Amino acid sequence: MAQTRLQLLGPVQLFHGDDPVPIGGPGVRGLLALLALKPGKVVGLDEIIDALWGHDPPATARTIVHGNVSHLRRILRDLDGPRILTTPPGYRLDVEPDRIDVHRARTLLDRASVAGPEVAAALLAEALALWQGPALGGVPDSLRAPELEDLRKAVHGARVDADLELGRHAELIVELSPIVRADPLAERAAGQLMRALYHAGRRGDALELYRTVSRATLRTLGVEPGAELRWLHERVLNDDLPPLSREGAHQGPLLARESGGSAISQLPAAVPNLAGRAEELAWLDGLVTRAEAGQTTIAVVSGTAGVGKSTLVVWWAHRVASRFPDGVLFASLRGFDPHHPPLEPAELLTQFLLGLGVETAKVPELLHERVALYRSLIAGRRMLVLLDDARTAEQVRPLLPPSARTMTVVTSRSRLDGLAVSNAAKQRVLGTLAPDDAVALIEELAGPASLNHALARLCGYLPLALRIAGARLSAGAQRTAEELVDELGNERTRLAGLQVDGADDSVRAAFDVSFRGLPGEVAETFLQLGAVPGVMAGPHVVAAVAQIPVAEARRRLRALAAHNLIAETERDVFVPHDLVSLYLRELAEQELSDKDRDEVLGSTVRYYQAVADRARRRLGRVADPLDFSHVLADDAIPPLSGFAEAHDWFAAEWPNLLAVLDAAYAAGRHGDAWRLARLAHTYRVACPLLDEWMRMADLGVAAAEAAGDVAGQCWLRLARCEIALTFELPGFGLADAERAAELSAASGDERLRTSVDLHLGRALSRLGEHEAAIERLAEAIANAPDVTLRGQALSSCAQAEKRAGRLPAAIAHQRAGLRIDRELGDDDQVVASLGKLAELSLRAGDHEAAERYVWEAIDLAISREFVAREGTLRLTLGRVLRARGDIDGAREQLALSVRIYERVHPKLVGEVRSELADLQ
């Protein structure tokens, strides 16, 4: 069966088997490329906009992205496998990475690194063949992915090394000569060409090549070539260059030291194998090239506790140590050691000076004198300095070498932004491992097992947690993977399960050290986050909880992000790692009183009530009397100027809304719970998730009953009736509407009573009781207290009249309702009214009007991402086209409707499939 694959290494293209699938222009290609570069990971909407338009996006950028996502989804529905999922705060491409050429190339590169030369050469040739031209062709100019060119160079360089090892010197001379002529500063390629020339018997040409490269390097950079190339030159001069061996392409300087040098090496032992981290290793390798070119190079590798910073850097340093002929200095700065204070710069300098050969008696007493001696000793040397576990930039600065030819790598749980500002340090935040790499880490310790993928997920792909899980599995045969998965599957026991014998050897202990090192006000905010339900936080909710200005809340959250306890996944969206979330919850339960936690929950609920109320009013009409406009000041609410912003807010905050609702109900805040459920109900127009909506409505009804609030029970029962009508559930919600009618009989609330009539009329109409339905809806039209409810009543009455066979009256009522919808700017109702007018016109035989109405509705539904509405409209369009004799067009639209209904209306798929079968 043909598979779908994505090409990024060349013109961005989608293939089904060998057949290209048209996808659209640069914007659509750019969007697909952004998602495909990070398969399985969320790409934020703001990140997408920045990548596609740079610093000058159009006002409609969000709408354009929504439309392009819908366009791609329609294309992918026809293919096997790939899907674009809406995952706050953006989108995620659900696809096997091996179907994307970039990730296929990385996999081949990784496999080649542990294969013999013949197999490696074949694998790397296969990887290079994936490039079909300049990467990311046909996308907007603002979209850049320089790592793809780095990947190509890494693949090419590794393939040349394999060919050198196989003795294919003549072929490589032909291949490499034009590359080096075009870029004589490409020292790796130049070194490879020197080797090929020498072993092909062209020693003089190899020496001339070195002179050419040396002149270019001196002229352009003002420095001599790097150590590797200088070592090669010396070996060619002495006519004793050994063949390249599989152990590594950069062993020349190491051999030179072994034959009489005195290089320093303070590196601790490295792990036998490093899981994943190909991109980070390539980044570090690229910085070595900068250092070899004479540029001052300082790298900061930061990340949350247990993410594997030291493991990565030490493993990498062993691999590249030979490129620093004067040695490697290493020191643990103990910045986050739970038992010792951070080392002072004076102590660290003493350690380095002794390593550099200074006698103990000659180490200066004063700090500034030690700094001066240290800098004078390493000036001009080609060295690597590793500063592990730094706490602050101030702890690091005295240890920074003065030589541009020495590279410094710092690891820290904090980002050390000060080094970027004052010393132009390059920064890299280390994330968790990719799922397959995480499984490989467990298997390294405990061997293969079917549940390793589940274990890796429960460990949050965090290396420390993975190593603990692997160690526990390997500790004894009495522990099975099933038992460990059960233990870690319980959130209450997961952190306890990620601990071995020593109290310090645990995920909780690692996080605790980070927390205890936070400044007071930032630590207070971190604690409060533990009592805020939800999966992410922003400055506005933190401001509401902490009762501080939004700007101050943002500053504190970014301070936490700088300490890598949370991550700012896009602007103002802060997400803790899964295990950090569990730690936070435990911490809040331990260190906050019941009263403090209740106050945090109360503030959180009030915030979401206020913002959800504002957002729903941007989405469309509001029938109930709930009004939270007085709860928060305008500057305490995220900017929600229109429909798109409100839709995006609901989409991003939906998991938080569900979590806050559950927490409010569990805490006995029943009045808060039913109100929040009703406020969030409006979002159903753009998010047709039946299970979640029914759970929310059921909980809302239960909360209103527990609170003894009659109006609340009515409004939540009407919400549940609306869901039953939308999803055509048995009974169409009539029982809820009738119960609401009983409860509201004595109410003087005209809005409530009109809404009850509306829902009763709609449910009765669906059940075939046309006269009773029209009577109820006529009362609603006559008694509607405002134009909003009158428009809804007109539209509902039109449908009842249609079912009763009164088409002229139905069309007249629906047109009157559409006029009100347009006047109010209610896009959901405009789409619904247009779709209903299309159906009515079709029944009346006016096919031209029907097609005009339905296409207008589909365009608006796609731009607003009303997925359920789009499915119904495609069905209507298929029927219109069939009536007009366009059978092929009808088949296409009905097929699209089937694919949408499979996701949002599975119970109704059979009806549409039956219609489609009639057309075959």
Automatic annotation (TrEMBL):
<dbReference type="InterPro" id="IPR019734">
    <property type="entry name" value="TPR_rpt"/>
</dbReference>
<dbReference type="Pfam" id="PF03704">
    <property type="entry name" value="BTAD"/>
</dbReference>
<dbReference type="InterPro" id="IPR016032">
    <property type="entry name" value="Sig_transdc_resp-reg_C-effctor"/>
</dbReference>
<dbReference type="InterPro" id="IPR001867">
    <property type="entry name" value="OmpR/PhoB-type_DNA-bd"/>
</dbReference>
<dbReference type="InterPro" id="IPR005158">
    <property type="entry name" value="BTAD"/>
</dbReference>
<keyword id="KW-0238">DNA-binding</keyword>
<comment type="similarity">
    <text>Belongs to the AfsR/DnrI/RedD regulatory family.</text>
</comment>
<keyword id="KW-0805">Transcription regulation</keyword>
<feature type="DNA-binding region" description="OmpR/PhoB-type">
    <location>
        <begin position="1"/>
        <end position="95"/>
    </location>
</feature>
<dbReference type="InterPro" id="IPR051677">
    <property type="entry name" value="AfsR-DnrI-RedD_regulator"/>
</dbReference>
<keyword id="KW-0804">Transcription</keyword>
<protein>
    <submittedName>
        <fullName>BTAD domain-containing putative transcriptional regulator</fullName>
    </submittedName>
</protein>
<dbReference type="Pfam" id="PF13374">
    <property type="entry name" value="TPR_10"/>
</dbReference>
<keyword id="KW-0802">TPR repeat</keyword>
<dbReference type="Pfam" id="PF00486">
    <property type="entry name" value="Trans_reg_C"/>
</dbReference>
<feature type="repeat" description="TPR">
    <location>
        <begin position="754"/>
        <end position="787"/>
    </location>
</feature>
<dbReference type="InterPro" id="IPR027417">
    <property type="entry name" value="P-loop_NTPase"/>
</dbReference>
<dbReference type="InterPro" id="IPR011990">
    <property type="entry name" value="TPR-like_helical_dom_sf"/>
</dbReference>
<dbReference type="InterPro" id="IPR036388">
    <property type="entry name" value="WH-like_DNA-bd_sf"/>
</dbReference>
<feature type="domain" description="OmpR/PhoB-type">
    <location>
        <begin position="1"/>
        <end position="95"/>
    </location>
</feature>
